[in-house]
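User: I'm putting together a teaching handout on how multi-component assemblies are represented. Below are the sequence lines for each component of a complex, exactly as they appear in our records. Could you produce the 3D structure of the whole assembly as structure tokens, so the students can see both representations side by side? Please keep the chain order the same as the input.
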Amino acid sequence: MRSPEPTTLPELVAEAQRVLAICNACRYCEGYCPVFPALQRRLEFPAADVHYLANLCHNCGSCLYACQYAPPHEFHVDFPRLLAQVRARTWADYAWPGFLARAFASGGLAASLATAAGLVLVLLAAILASDASALTKAWTDSQGAFYAALPHGAMVAVFAPVFAFALLALGIGVARFWTRLGERGADLVSAPAAAPALGDALSLRHLDGGGEGCTWPDDRPSFARRTFHHLTFYGFVLCFAATATATIYHYALGRHAPYPFWSPPVLLGTAGGLGLVAGPLGLAWLKRRRDPQLADPAQRGMEAGLLALLFLSGATGLGLLALRESAAMGAMLVAHLGVVLALFATMPYGKFVHGFYRLAALARYHLERRRPAASVAPD
Amino acid sequence: MLTEPGRTWDVLVLGGGNAALCAAIAAREAGASVLMLECAPPVYRGGNSRHTRNMRTMHDGPLEVLTDAYPEEEYWQDLLKVTGGLTDERLARMTIRGTASHVPWMKRHGVRFQAPLGGTLHLSRTNAFFLGGGKALVNAYYRAAAALGVSIAYDTEVVDLAFEGPRLAAVTVEHGGERRALRARAVVVAAGGFESNLEWLREAWGPPAENFIVRGTPYNRGRVLKLLLAAGARPVSDATQGHCVAIDARSPRYDGGIVTRVDAVSLGIVVNRDAQRFYDEGEDFWPKRYAIWGRLVAAQPGQIGYALIDAKAMGRFMPPVFPPERAPSLRELAGKLGLDPDALEATVARFNAAVRPGTFDHTVQDDCRTEGLEPPKTHWARALDTPPYYAYPLRPGITFTYLGVAVDEKARMQLDNGKPAANVWAAGEIMAGNILGKGYLAGIGLAIGTTFGRIAGEEAAAHALA
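Assistant: Of course. Below is the structure of the complete assembly, with chains in the same order as your input.
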């Protein structure tokens, strides 16, 4: 029944169609997460719907351990791994521009190259905008520390285009996914879809294995993964908020960095930085212990790349805070900005995109729930 | 565990499914040292419990995920009806009453419940569904048992039971090609039936058994049951009784489980290999009738049947795992199925001509029926006239067998000489025949296994520690 080791997206979709027919006839996992109620609305699974279900899956693993047809059973229902494989390939499939999608499969290489490029770019910007010796001197806060080494204008000139491009590329990818589902663009941001989807995402409601915690990294239910994911996600959000607040300070209030420790931008950044250090460390630790049956080994590099960039963003940010009045400030600044630049540059072409596709899939789920189901098995 | 030669265990539990786990947990909680022997490897542990999904549960008001009430008397009447009286009222009522207390006990040991699954709303009042199904239940119990300090030996098959009079003195097991004799003060036998022992099925059913598909675990070979019967245990029910449903003929020989069922029968007609109908497909709601179709198909030549529907029926039943055969005409469908096209056309023409006009409604016993046709179709009879036509081939699917050992209300195994065994208790499928002499009621297996598993564990522990 099963084609030998499916690898391409069409092969994986075909394998998923085979497995989904088994799940639809079984239905034991219905209580675990939205994937099952969503699949049970259907009698057939066109490719776009397989993409949708794959992105709806949080890889909590509960259904694998509950599955009476999991390998070595001849039905070979390897559901979470299969959906993970489909998922990663849909991201590459929908990515814009297409040639950069190769980064998804490159493992940690993309993240490393981007980091190196980011470092060089920030260093070059600093040298061109002021001079290299400014990077190795100790500046006091009153002298403007960061901007003394790398003027504000140069910083914006490097970051704004990368940030804007990342947003554009992410937007196009998700829009392609959404359109392929046959949904209207306006529905994605409509209240009945977006509000509950956002609620699910912010609470990681479905990373709970149906209530007791997901079976991660092994068959014992635990909330460890949700906790570390929350630390990572909210760490990122706080850091983002710190930067946004600082931008308001800079342009609206005319108050320039560095800000005192007890100021909102620094407090937000410090809390966020701690989250970005602890969260990715915890997730990496869990991943190391993860049941190999749940993992798509091809994604290990991509996952490690994102965790490393997030961790380094947090760690260098905290380092910069601690050393901002020392001679190491310049080096820390280049390191921090270089890593953050790499994080944004690789954002549309790595594991980071999962959040956006998941959000869109959840929005679809909530839209669909309001529609009458196809006629499947009335009681 | 197996390598402690001199050790005498308080309680040995033979088996690794729901009843065995309930017994092991109950015995361990009562203070006994417990060794469980599971003949399957860890990935296939749990016997047929892996394939279950709910427990029929008595309740006097809304309980957990159960709606309304399902009182003892109604439960008993349901059981009485399906068994045609082949049951032991005392043990049956004990089982029924026991179920009320199981839900909190199960939750305490990590089992979680969920609302009834899609397509099973008709069971929302009577059956408590496990979140994730039977394998999730089995996993939860194994975790609970291990946490309590129950020792578990996998890949360990019982090959001999040495009785000294009414006392089971030693249990010989085989593990990794080596044999060892284990000693225990008390033994719980919860090792299931013999549905995956094709030789035994042939003995009971004759040549038709060749065409049976084993829907459940391949590990229930009935070795313990056979040893017990040979040692003088009193048998209950008989070797041809069991839970046998009509499943897709393309299912794997073993372990196909729930997905191999075909729920299209009441929406169309079923013919045998001679393209002849043989039973009223619309006798009652499918959930109440699916359990008789295994035996009906087993009685047909070649043990095969074909459920035929037309386009009108598509999407009105739970999607089966295998796609149907499909053709634009009955002749072509007959060709694909290897049936005589003329005979099939004639059968369908006769059926269509006998269908009386009515208002089709699959949710009630409607007035769509045939007239002057033998056998009749008494509800949901609509002419097969809208192409494409679809067919699902059917074979008898053995889920579990009822031949077992007799027990009393303390789950103690009874001997043929009228006396109880001195230190043997039985639980689960190996004694289900006491209550289920024939027929089947959804979720009754788990009810019997949990009730008698808990009792057997407690009684065995009390005996061992006395």
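A couple of points students might notice: Chain B has a mean pLDDT of 95. Chain B has two domains: 8-239+402-465, 245-397.
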